[in-house]
Amino acid sequence: MPTPPHLTDPPPYARPRLLTLVFVLGTVMIDAMGIGLILPIMPSLLQEVGGGSLADAALWGGILATGFAAMQFLFGPVVGSLSDSIGRRPVLLVSLTALALDYLVMATAGSLWLMLLARMVGGITAATHATAGAYMADISRPEDKARNFGLLGAALGVGFVLGPLLGGLLAELGTRAPFYAAAALCAANAALGWLVMPETVTDRTRRAFDWREANPLGAVRTLARIPGISRLLLVYFLYSVAIYVYPAIWSYYSAASFGWTPALIGVSLAIYGVSIAVVQGGLMRYALRWGGERRTVIYGQLFDILGFAILAGLTNGTIALMMIPVTALGAVVQPALQGILSRAVADTHQGTLQGVMTSVHALSMIVSPLMMTATFAAFTREDAALHLPGAPFLLAILLMACGFALFLRGRL
Asked: Domain residues for 175?
C-alpha cells in the first residue's frame, strides 16, 4: 500500500502543490477575514449582550481586543515550538478547528464574560499566521524567503479588505451571522488542509518540545544567542508599534481632519488593504531583485517616515486618499525583515522564531493603540495648546527613526 502523501517527508525547499499553497495562503487570509467579519457588528452585539450604552460597548470591545492580543503574546512561542516538534500540519489543522468552534461559541454567547473567554481562547488558537510563516520558511530557499513572506502579507491584506465588506453585508441577517460565517470558513479550510497539506517538518529538522523555550522570554533568550537577532527583534517591535498608528487612529484622525463619514473611512481602509496586497504580492519581488532584503528594509522605512510626515499636517481629504497607495509602499519592510530573521535561524527553530514574532506583534497591538490614541486625545481636546490630529504620526516617526538607526548599526 502506498504511503499517504501527507505522511511522506518532502525534500528540502520542495515546491508545494498549488492546492497546498492555496490552503496556507487561505489560512492567513481567513485569519484576517475572521477579525474583519465581526468588526461591523461588535458595537451592536456588545450592547445586545451587555445591555449597556455605546460607551460601555466600546469599553468591552477594548477589553476583548486586549484579551485576544495578550493571549497571542503569551502563547505564540508555545504554538510555534509545538510546530517545530510535532509538525506544521497538526498545529494548523487543530488551530483552525478550534478557531471554528470558538466562533460558534461567540455566535451563541449570552454573556460578556463568556465572550471574553472565547476571545482569549481565540487569541491562543489564532497562531495560524505564525505556523503558516514557519511552513513558508520550510519550503523556501534562503533567497526566496522574503518574497514568499510577501505572499503571506498579500493574503493578509486581501483578508482585511474582504472581511469588513462581507461582515457588513452579513450584518443585515443579524448580529450573530458573521460569527457563523467565520466558523464555516475556518472549518472549510481545515477540511481542505486535511486533504492537501503535506508535513514539512522532517526528522532532519524536528526537535523536542522544551517548555523553557515555549514562552516569550525563554524563546527570546534562545534566539538571542544568535548574533544580531535581539537587535533585529527590537527593530521589528519598534516598526510594528509605529506602523500600527494606522489602525489605531485612522478612523478618528480622518473624521477630525477631513470630516469623513464612516462609509468613506471604510473605503479608505479598503484602498489601503488592496494597496498592501499589491505591494507585498507583486512589487515585493522587484524590490528584492533591485536592492536585496537590507536595502528593501531601508528604503521601505524611509517611505513610511515620509508618509507619516505628510499625514501629520495634512488637511485635504482628497490628497489623503491619493496618499494611501504611496504609504503602502512601505509594506515591503515586514516581509524583508522576516526574510532576514528567518535566514539567520536554523531550520529546527523556524516555528520558534515565527512564534516570537507573533508575540512581538501582539505586544505592539497592546502598546501602540494606548500610545497613539492618548496622543491623539491630547492634541484634539478642546483645551489643547496645539490642535493637531496628526500628532500620532509624529510619534510614529520617532519610533520608526529609532528602529531605523538600530537597523543601520549592524549587518546580518
From this structure: 15-198+211-409
Dihedral sign from CA coordinates of 190, 191, 196, 199: positive
- How many domains are there within the chain? 1
Q: What is the DSSP letter of 140?
A: S
> Is there a domain that residue 7 lies in?
no
First-residue to last-residue Cα distance in the chain: 47
Please indicate, yes or no, if residue 6 is contained in any of the structural domains: no
Task: Please report where in the chains the cell 490630529 appears, as a residue.
Answer: 389
- Residue the block writes with cell 443585515: 172
Task: Provide DSSP, 256-279.
Answer: HHH---HHHHHHHHHHHHHHHHHI
User: What is the C-alpha separation between 362 and 370, in angstroms, rounded?
Assistant: 13
According to DSSP, residue 31 is labeled H
HSE at residue 394, side-chain half, CA atoms within 13 A, is 10
Backbone region of residue 11 per phi and psi (left: phi > 0; alpha: psi in -120 to 50; beta: other values):
beta
Residues in contact with 122: Cβ distance below 8 Å, sequence separation at least 6, in sequence order: 68, 71, 99, 102, 103, 106
Q: Give the span between the Cα atoms of 34 and 159, in whole angstroms.
A: 8
> Which grid cell sits at 402?
529609532
CATH code (residue 354): 1.20.1250.20
CA 310 to chain CA mean position, Å? 25
Of the candidate ranges 1-10, 72-81, 352-361, the one whose mean pLDDT is the lowest: 1-10
201 vs 8: CA distance, rounded Å: 10
- Convert the pLDDT of each residue in 207-249 to its tens digit: 777 666 666 666 666 676 777 788 888 999 999 999 988 877 7
Query: How confident is the model at residue 36, as a pLDDT?
Result: 66
In a domain, 70, yes or no: yes
Residue 148 domain-assigned (yes or no)? yes
How is residue 254 written as a grid cell? 480622518
**DSSP character at residue 385:** S
If phi > 0 it is left, if psi is from -120 to 50 it is alpha, else beta; for residue 353 that is alpha
The separation between CA 377 and the C-alpha centre of its own chain, rounded to angstroms, equals: 26
| Interval 275-312: pLDDT, tens | 888 888 788 888 888 888 899 999 999 999 999 999 99
| Nearest residue to 258 (alpha-carbon basis) of 318, 332, 308 | 318
The pTM is what?
A: 0.70
Residue 6 in grid coordinates: 501527507
